[in-house]
């Protein structure tokens, strides 16, 4: 026994030393801040501290509660313009690394669910690849956000660049602001944003593209009608040149020249050239064969209507025979349509005339003759024509129609005369006179031209539109035409021109249509081999409409051997003039409008059953270099966003099952590490390394997820998840690691509970199993070392033990009761205990003792009561008060069997009486009848009667309730003389057993005193002569 106590004491001492050493571990001082992870744009820095052991001799690892690292932001100044994005740099670091045997150029991709994992897209493949489990510290979780990734976790960063700060930029770009710049929700709310560029203004050649802007709501991020931004200055839509493809040569048509004549049929000419527009804007004149046919007309007939012409008749005789008179003639304009004769060329229709004989008495000195022209005689009346006349020019035949208008001077014209020639260039004339109508004369008279408004003077001469004088034109030899080919034998012929024989001027070939024919000579020219040359085709269409495309053309070095059949010999480029003309050139180098871009679908997220497939979806704008550039998503229409995730269905998965091991694990000694499986209730010591397993069937273990107290576990340096899905915890502590751990395999869950033992817990568990730890059993029937099982902890075969505790007290002190004891199936070692379900021992062939038995107890009793009676009138206890009564009995629990009162607890017996008010309880004195005269036969004889205090109505004894009432008389004298018989009776009456031995026996019945033993003895005869009073 002493050795047992000694061993137990040693074990306790060891446990206390272990626990005290663990409890004394503490953190050291924080280190200085580490170097910032970035030089600009916001990086991360950290401080580290070490966990120090209180006992330097201990070999166990130090354990401290709390975090070993703490972080902060640094270098938050923005990077210079044009700096490469940090995530882009990390992806580009893999450009020189082989991936699946190939080399790719990598572009960044941000996954919305796992923003701190490095996903990249290989150029040309467009599928998402995970290149690293986490990005470098300081990488933004998403574009245009302050949140950053630190140690694989996305940390919230406020606009003040502090971790876990709630401050954000308001719509006024103020950190932590309240949108105070917004006026009633409108001022500052709307703004212009660039949404891309317009299409190229031309379908070929150089065009213009302009930046387009739309109105955007800052609150919702949506594009709204542009009229909401009318009050804001719209950015100037600067333009850029664009080039879709080389335009083919086209006919350049110049304007028509004036018609050669104004009437009578002439010709109008225009120039039509086959032109090719070069990239620098210069135009090159090509041969007509390069442009599509037919060639637009270069000549057309014009002004086919006849020319208006004045025709004048013969002058009439002078209207007088003496003095001054007038002559007239008819002038007619021959015209077609709305083209009339010019009024300034109309001949005069009236003129003054004289007979050279004066008429006495008829002369008028107010007329003054003026001779502006030698052949015209006119009069001036001092009247000038006005600007407002509706008909400033009037034909002489219409003078009488416009008498009112002719009251002021007007130009009057005659009809045109005959042409001066019958062909070629000729002239015709007419008279133009300034005339006025004189009402006194009833006719018009000529006036000086200055009296009429000179700017309206009609022409007096014009060209006649006649056919050319064909006899004056001839064909003239001007040499030979240019050779039709530069090599391989072309032709040239005589070059003829139509010339005027009179002045040698060159005219249209139509003028020589009747000229004498001239012989034309044709001959071969340039009959030499063709040199090698470049055959250059036209540039095709641009490969893209924006974002930098290419256009190609065919460039070949050839030598022409046959022109009609276009037979050529292709030569190497070095045999033609260098440098080689460009075969490709860039085009449409302006930015493209932003559009959604999506990559290839990833493989299904599961190997069986229902999963998801992902693909990158980003808003991109193609740069002039042809590279896609990610831009903010609000630049792309939200309604057109492609789907980035979709379900995938594979073959049915096997049913997922989690193998649980229901058991209890108790650590009683320091261990380097402990392996636990789900289903276990573990009690461990501080500082132990833990490995939590979740055996799964039907899916891969690495896809197991772990939760702690219902929250997802974030891996750290101390807590990690292995590739096999095991959760590893280093240097466990109660503060950080105690709780419920849940492993999730698809929809299946299993728990594992971890608590931490203190010294008393370990001591209690050790004392309970002292006999097993020391190697012997109190009852050999409860354990057998021959029954072994594979220990889940280390997979070694160990003996099973049945641990049986002492019997407990009975569950109750009476009736049916049981007592129990703990019977557990365990593996017991000096480092730990494992408690299994009893079926483990039973399946191993160990007999399981009873853990419960009945107790021999007396039946359980209780006091039974009935309802209270009404307030009794025959049980008064004081003035105005009586009692209520009820039945009280001892019975069995859950039964109506009545038992003796001694079977129940007398101290718990309920009351059977209680006082109550009763107005019928009134005390009164009552007396009996007077007794016979008593005493000796002399004068001192007397009579007595009984006096009792009773309750009115029931006449039962009221005790001392009448003490305050006047008492009636109880004794009086009597004078009855004694007779001889009375004496004889007294002397001779025999002493029998049942006789009355008191003078008051005559009232015992009235007072109901026979129920008392004393009165029944003294008044035996009286009490026995009537019915016995009921018992009390």
Give the overall shape, derived from the CA principal axes: elongated
Strand content: 25-35%
Class of secondary structure makeup: mainly beta
| CA radius of gyration | 70 Å
Mean pLDDT: 79
Number of strands: 74
Q: Would you state the CATH class of the domain at 657-774 and 787-853?
A: Mainly Beta
Alpha carbon gap, first and last residue: 70 Å
Strand order of the largest sheet: 55-54-58-59-51-49-64-63-61-60
Instruction: Please give the largest β-sheet.
Output: 10 strands, mixed
- Tally of DSSP helical segments: 9
* CATH homology-level superfamily of the domain at 657-774 and 787-853: Immunoglobulins
Provide the helix percentage.
under 10%
| CATH fold node name of the domain at 657-774 and 787-853 | Immunoglobulin-like
Low-confidence stretches: 1-7, 17-23, 361-391, 776-784, 981-992, 1027-1032
Identify the CATH architecture of the domain at 657-774 and 787-853.
Answer: Sandwich
Keywords: Disulfide bond, Repeat, Secreted, Signal
Subcellular location: Secreted
Organism: Elysia chlorotica
GO biological process, one term: proteolysis
